[in-house]
Amino acid sequence: MENAFEISECAKVRKVKFSTATLHGLGLTWWNSQVATLGHEVANTRSWVEVKQMMADEFCPTEEVQRFAEIIKGKTTSSRPVTHNEAVRMAHVLMEQKIQAKNETIAEGLKRKWENNNQGNNNNNNNN
Questions:
Q1: Can you tell me the distance from the alpha carbon of 23 to that of 32, in angstroms, rounded to the nearest whole number?
Q2: Cα separation of 4 and 25, whole Å?
Q3: Phi/psi of residue 31, each to 5°?
Q4: Long-range contacts for 39-43 (Cβ within 8 Å, ≥24 apart)?
Q5: Cα separation of 1 and 23, whole Å?
Q6: Contacts with 71 (C-beta within 8 Å, 6 or more apart), sequence order
Q7: pLDDT at 82
Q8: How do residues 53-95 score in pLDDT, each as one tens digit?
Q9: How many Å apart are CA 67 and CA 96, to the nearest integer?
Q10: Out of the domains of life, which is the source (predicted)?
Q11: In 10 A of CB 43, how many CB atoms?
């Protein structure tokens, strides 16, 4: 998000509005509840640092982060020391790659199934 702020030259007072406009799913539901509870004006005038901390508290509880750190401890490899943030980013990238590979495998299986069914239909039509 910080890179998006820099690239778009987002003014400090607009960071909360800018960042929350990109939310979807559970993040958007959470933000809408914040707006409903605090009011639109109060929610949107909070500092980006404060909102970022609120998001971290909600979506990255300390005990979960510590549990994750224990799980990946010793299981990451890198050419340089890996910070916790780098390990989390690496896990995210690897998970995306795994999901992409699985989707490609599924798509390939569906393609083969369709081709086999289509080939079977052509054989049946030729036999008639």
A1: 10
A2: 20
A3: -65, -40
A4: 43/16
A5: 11
A6: none
A7: 63
A8: 998 888 888 887 778 777 777 665 555 556 778 878 877 888 8
A9: 21
A10: Eukaryota
A11: 20
CA-based nearest residue to 91, from 71, 61, 63, 66: 71
Please tell me the distance from the alpha carbon of residue 104 to that of residue 25, in angstroms, as a whole number: 25
Mean pLDDT of all residues belonging to the chain = 81
- DSSP letter string, 26-65: HHHHHHHHHHHHH-HHHHHHS-HHHHHHHHHHHHS-HHHH
Instruction: Match 């508290």 to its residue by tokens.
Output: 57
Question: If you search the block for the tokens 């010793």, which residue do you land on?
Answer: 74
Hey, where are the domains in the chain?
Answer: 1-59
| 13: DSSP letter | G
> Residue 128's pLDDT is what?
55
| Residue 8 · residue 18 · CB < 8 Å | yes
DSSP conformational letter for 77: -
Q: Does the pLDDT value for residue 113 go beyond 90?
A: no
